[in-house]
Amino acid sequence: DPGRGLLGRGLCIAVDQVFPPDAPEIGGVFSDASAERWRAEELGVITSERPRLSADDISWHYTAQRTGDPGTAASLIAVAAACHQDAPSLILSSDRSGSRAAAVIAV
């Protein structure tokens, strides 16, 4: 639907607020994305418009792949997992109502 705009723009804005171009590099991204088509479109936009997130040395983690779809607990699971990483991690979260959030966790 061309009238609705491209999914992913809201998540790009959220990422820009916590991970600006001059921010230190991250080691991984944790996403609450599941197998829904709108989430794939959203992640496609963010990885193409924010090339730093597509670097070879950045690992992507999807909580739903490890736990099944935990619903609203996905972001909390991602934060807990990010706390066990050696490098800062970016957390991405979206919901059907249009809310988008991002956070950087550095331990």
Task: Give a short overview.
This protein has 107 residues and is an alpha/beta fold. The protein has a 4-stranded mixed sheet.
Explain what you see.
The chain is an alpha/beta fold. Helices cover 35% and strands 19% of the residues. It is built from four helices and four strands. It has a four-stranded mixed β-sheet. A hairpin with a 5-residue loop joins β3 and β4. The relative contact order is 0.25. The mean pLDDT is 88.
Topology, element by element:
Layout: H1 9-18, E1 28-31, H2 37-49, E2 59-62, H3 63-67, H4 74-82, E3 89-94, E4 100-105
Parallel strand pairs: 1-2, 1-3
Antiparallel strand pairs: 3-4
The residue fraction in helices comes out at 25-40%
Number of helices: 4
Tell me the fraction of residues in β-strands, as a range.
Answer: 15-25%
Radius of gyration: 13 Å
Biggest sheet character: 4 strands, mixed
Shape designation: globular
Average the pLDDT over all residues and give the rounded result: 88
| Strand arrangement in the largest pleated sheet | 2-1-3-4
Task: Kindly name the structural category.
Answer: alpha/beta
Q: Would you identify the regions where 5 or more consecutive residues have pLDDT less than 50?
A: none
Please give the alpha-carbon distance between the first and last residues: 41 Å
* SSE arrangement, N to C: HEHEHHEE
Find the count of extended strands (DSSP E, 2+ residues): 4
